[in-house]
Amino acid sequence: MLNYLSVAIMPLIIFSIISYGLMKKVSIFDSFTKGAKDGLETTVRILPSLVALVTAVSMLRASGFIDFLCNFMAPVLDFAGFPKELVPLSLMRPISGSGALAVIDELLKTHGADSFIGRCASVMAGSTETTFYTLAVYLGSVGITNSRHTVKSALCADLTAMIISVIVVKLIFY
Questions:
Q1: Contact 86, 124 (CB under 8 A)
Q2: Cβ atoms of residues 131 and 49 within 8 Å
Q3: What is the value of pTM for the model shown?
Q4: Per-domain boundaries in the chain
Q5: Which of 20, 55, 95, 120 has its C-alpha lying 20 to 30 A from 128's C-alpha?
């Protein structure tokens, strides 16, 4: 039954939207083309931010800076009880979702999904945001150039979620 529902859901949604538009006497094709045009304009506005973001992520990974930072921070992290293996994920997650998924994949292959590191990485990925990507899309789409406290607040929320992820996994599983 669910298989049939999953196959039929998108056609049903499209049919419902078209039916509603016809009932309200809306020019459906004109509305669609206007929405597509607005979407393309938004894409053109945010493209430079996204290109800069992807370039920065690639440079960070290729330069070895993340590995250097992990080794540099290891004594403090050990004292705080934060696994140093999670530092690459902590640095990558606010910048790039796909980069963070690659780090998570590597952590799960190395340590296992049911390990402390694997569980922390999974909880961390689910409770944090790709902050810079999200801000680039949202602020760029409406033309905001001065984000004021948005970046600091979002990064504080990410840091809090990362720390709490480790604490929660320790409390629940260990």
A1: yes
A2: no
A3: 0.68
A4: 38-173
A5: 55
